Amino acid sequence: MSSSHMDNIPSTPGKFKMEKSPYIHRFRLHYSSLAKLTFWSFVFMGLILVFFFKSPSSKSTSSSSSSDLSRRSLKTTSWGGPVWEKRVKSSARIRTRNGFSVLVTGAAGFVGTHVSVALKRRGDGVLGLDNFNDYYDPNLKRSRQSLLERSGIFIVEGDINDVALLNKLFDLNPFTHVVHLAAQAGVRYAMENPSSYVHSNIAGFVNLLETCKNSNPQPAIIWASSSSVYGLNTKVPFSEKDRTDQPASLYAATKKAGEEIAHTYNHIYGLSLTGLRFFTVYGPWGRPDMAYFFFTKDILRGKSIPIFEAANHGTVARDFTYIDDIVKGCLGALDTAEKSTGSGGKKRGPAQLRVFNLGNTSPVPVSDLVSILERLLKVKAKRVVMKLPRNGDVQFTHANISFARREFGYKPTTDLQTGLKKFVRWYLSYYGSGKKSEQ
Ligand SMILES: O=C(O)[C@H]1O[C@H](OP(=O)(O)OP(=O)(O)OC[C@H]2O[C@@H](n3ccc(=O)[nH]c3=O)[C@H](O)[C@@H]2O)[C@H](O)[C@@H](O)[C@H]1O
After folding, report:
1. Which terminus of the chain, N or C, has less C-beta within 10 A?
2. Which atom of ligand 1 is nearest to the CA of 281?
């Protein structure tokens, strides 16, 4: 049985957990020839089936890896061929003088979609990459894809762990920048499917950096870290200079690991790397696994919503940051990113390495978020106050953004009330007032 470049992927993306291959059976050898015949027939059939499911194709890949009957619902995707290559090149082509050619990973995701549209609008070439996993409703990702297609942005369907695919994309197009947003998100889900965080946030990131460091020219990389790296810190507001060595979730730990990995690739290969610590990003086309999103759904459906509170009735609060402000921050970081200094795997000099907070600088208690939603939806929420579970949540977040302000004029302008109004307007137009079902 031949092995493919996907064989070494350590874990699963999305909601799927590794299962043992159903094709591995143990047989007890019997001494009758009938039993032997039966045994060898099974082995033969098994080999055919294993070959059928695992045989790699130079032109096709799935968004998953080797032991993969556990990932049935991840659509098998194909790439390659002249039409596909033409679409890749056309999407990545720069349309203005001094524009960039940008690979956006996680382009069908919430932040990825918004950033892609903004880049395209100003004339940059944008190629998307996304594995469309079903961590949350893939239909929403498909709708975002349609939105991007209308702007002339092609999303390649594939996984950042697919080295051959990444190499192919860089062969076809000399990207000046990579905006790396593909990740396994969500702090609480990490207890359900820890390996998906390692797969996407660590292994996938390393694969991407390997491809970037080998390419010529090397792109500058802007990537999504997280406010969660501040973990159990109590000093507020959180500054980039603060310690980040006490993460409260595996998600946070993988993002922190990403920051250290970025340091290594910058140090050894001269890659220009900018990490952005996003603070609870919300807005239209958002992520259904986030509280503001499913609170909206459940309030409209008359379902109760769990509101966490800390010990001794302590307030749980977040520095909720509106998507348009985050997009401005991403573009500011991209525009001020210096070129990588290496090429073809060799460092030629010191390169830029940065980390920025992108928050709103004004934390809001979760109970106030619910009050705003009640007013906007004109429905009273059924609140159930619960103790903050110990499954990854931290009590509060609060960004100090002075570094991003100084470096590229980052200045958030949307307060939670205004941003949620825009979100609710989008939600109602997309889903209706609760009747149209949503996963
Ligand atoms: O900044 C980040 O880097 C992260 O932001 C986001 O994480 P969080 O800030 O935890 O957002 P989110 O889950 O919406 O919970 C919001 C608030 O509602 C509270 N919360 C949550 C669920 C619930 O049932 N009840 C509740 O009170 C909860 O305690 C919290 O106070 C991203 O999901 C994550 O991927 C990462 O990007």
Report:
1. N
2. 5
